Amino acid sequence: MIGPAFVLAVLVGIFTTALYALIRGSVGGRLPLLLLAAILGAWAGDSLGERLGFDIIRLGDFRVLAAVLGASLGIGLVSVVAALGPQDGRT
């Protein structure tokens, strides 16, 4: 049985990744990695928000604001690693 926290983390991760791609314009071949990092970041953000008592915006037991912050952190981490990695000359 899949809990609602994972399903909501997937939805928050998809939304955050789509918003990042809309703002950025082009993410290239990093889209699957960004999506995975956002989903895992949202799931971890919800769990961390539960442990720290950070529940400003909640949807049931799901801490939405903490999940969005976690997803954004995951996307930021992938973007920084991609920028620091070797460049192949394609854009």
Question: Could you tell me the mean pLDDT?
Answer: 90
Inertia-based shape: elongated
Distance between the termini: 42 Å
Q: How much strand content do the residues show?
A: under 5%
Overall number of strands: 2
Work out the helicity level. over 70%
Query: Number of helical segments?
Result: 3
Task: Describe the sheet with the most strands.
Answer: 2 strands, antiparallel
Strand order of the largest sheet: 1-2
SSE order, one letter for each helix or strand: HHEEH
In short:
The protein is mostly helical and 91 residues long. Helix content is 70%, strand content 4%.
Describe what this molecule looks like in 3D.
There is one protein chain. The chain is mainly alpha-helical and 91 residues long. 70% of the residues lie in helices and 4% in strands. The chain is built from 3 helices and 2 strands; from the N terminus they run ααββα. Helix 1 packs across helix 2. The chain is elongated. It starts with a helix and ends in a 7-residue tail after the last helix.
Summary keywords:
91 residues, mainly alpha, elongated, 70% helix
Question: What order do the helices and strands come in, and which of them pair?
Answer:
Layout lengths: L3 H21 L6 H22 L5 E2 L2 E2 H21 L7
Antiparallel strand pairs: 1-2
Helix pairs in contact: 1-2, 1-3, 2-3
